[in-house]
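Q: Sequence in, structure out?
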Amino acid sequence: MKNIILILLMPLYIFSSCKGQDKEEKQKPEVYKAKCEGEYSTGQKTTEREKKWSLTKSDVLSIISLSKEIDAQEVHYTYPITPCNIDIKGFNLKGNKVNLFINGGSNLQITDGSKITILGCDDPKCQKYFLLPKEDMNDEAESVNDSNYKVKNTYKVDFDNDKISDSIIIKQKTEQQQEFKMEMYKNGNLFFSKLFYCDSMLLDLQVKYGQIFNIKIENKDQYGNVFRKVTIPVLFKNKEFYIEKLFVANFGISAKTGENEWTTKEVSNKTNLEDLDIDTLESKDNGDYK
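A: Exactly. Output:
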């Protein structure tokens, strides 16, 4: 009789054990671990915390729901890029199998067949999932502002071509309008500053010949008319900014025609940007530039 009871209870025991095992397995979330390769452009090594970065399936779904679609230019200029990524193949997203490439700088790519969608997560709720939050140019500009200068423009560039965006901030002195300050930042840290004396100053990032940006400055007469324009192509190598030539355009009476017109000349002399003196270089006239 006792053996019969045990035989009858055996299926119930097996069912109960399997159910408990299933419950235990369901309690273990699927974890995706990061892979860190290389280092930051500043030479900074990845930390142990960064190397241990991971996300669960629930985390990934939360990130996607909080993110918005962006283009490649936006991710390049406004999102940090870290050496740590989480690469997930065959992720189940709304019934579709997709590949995910998640960077620690609050951005990710979703590949569905041949279509690639770039997402950026700038919601404050995203910060707990990533290594670095989206960079805020306005906050950065305010943090480096002071009582003597007013921020005129903020630019996002990539000095090292390492897909990590850096910042250049142009300030104008509030009391002396002819004084501008150019400040350069990497990873939020100021590492270059230079004063320029002119009436207007801006950067041109649409470059063609290997420079990282052009500085464009103007000088005006007492009536507000521009009489000089200077274009300075800036190169970057071995962590140093330098120029090889600049272009100066002056408006005045031409020695050739006797008429008021713009004449442009190329001034060549390899110089560190820090040591650049425009007036000194301009005196080294190499002739008209056509």
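The chain is about 20% helix and 45% strand.
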